[in-house]
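Can anyone check this?
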Amino acid sequence: MISSHCSIRNLLGGLLALSLVAAACGGGGDTEDATGAEADGSTTTVDTGTTEAPTEDPVDSTVDAASEETTSLPAEPAGPPTETRGFDGSTIKLGYITDQTTPLALVGVALLGGAEAFWADVNAQGGVGGEYQVELVPADGKDSEAETVQEYQRIKEDVVMIAQVLSTPPTQALVEFLEEDEMIAVPGSLAGQWGLEANLLPNGTAYEFEMINLADWYVNESGLASDADVFCTLKVDDKYGNDSARGVDHAGTELGFDVSEEQTFTRLDAAFTAQVTRLNDAGCTVVFTISLPAQQAAILQEAAALGFDPVWLGSLPSYLNLFATGSPELWENFYVALDTPNFDSDEPGMAKFNEVWDAHGDGNVNTFNLSGYFQSIATRALLEAAVAAGDLSPEGIKSALAGLGEVELDGLADNYVYGAPEDRIPAAGSRIYRFDATNPPNLLTEVDRIESALTQSFDLSS
């Protein structure tokens, strides 16, 4: 049975019912036994120059210094995983530290809902490894570093891993504790740095790459660019905003434009008159907007009041159709970079998602439901690998992550190649959407897909 916070759902249900949409089963096939064991269980001699019969001793494995011949035994099956933190021998518990209280709860509850639908389907199919049911343990991080750390400490002994920690600053605050506890977590954040952290299982295209893709598309592909363009940035002043702005700066250097004006705000701000006025006074014609959904709606209202009407290029967290539904005229020049396809897409993963949502989803679907779902695909792949190795302990899951490889997302987002941090290949592509009030449920129409070559020269570790 999957745990949920129904009371939160009921409180936010009216809002989420309006919310429609904006924004991997594990990859890797069968591998050969590295020992060279035959299918019938007999041992095989690895020939280094002298042909010998297989060893007669089925127990001993030796290296003969004289003949330089190596004999080896077949690998023993791992067997079922033993009980450990968060696993009682039959049920795997996963922690979900989302936001269920602040305005970001519109995102947090939706992400959790997508994950719940995913795991309900897995459980209905027999569970992880066809045998182990999954139970979710939700916690409310309140979009706060301190609250997130506190909730992590409260649930960490009850779960095998944290399958969601929402937003960039809370994830950043949790990294040192994950390292201490050998705990793996899935960031509900697209900071590029997460791919360099051994205890994180990131998904999706980094914020930095989103901005690079948006800039490259606008300058070279959109047909909207002009020599008279004045490029500006409006961003939340935290790691999410600063990382994303680095992507804009990199693109500007490579594409030949300067950011003429940069305005910032905090995650708690609700009024943006001063910032929008400065952008207007600077003559900005293109604004890279790095915000959260409710704030973006307020920013566009301020802009309309001032008669300020640039092209807006938004990162994934800036758009939720709930806000666009009530005032579509404000969003006519808004473009956003997302990982995921539209719900009517012919991508194979979308057909499966729609089937799962019909069977297990709660309410009207939106983009963040889809994000919570596709993030769970990599989590499942990781758990399947740990179960196959017979070890769901913290060390076992971390070892499984180091050898995980590519996880196939069936078109729901670009695949991510996992492993040790130095071996990972992050997703780098984006779908560019324009606002389209005539195209429910997400009120977006895809205009292009791009993986800018400029992402290859960007250093995510800086």
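Reply from J.R.: I decoded it. Confidence is low (pLDDT under 50) at residues 1-74.
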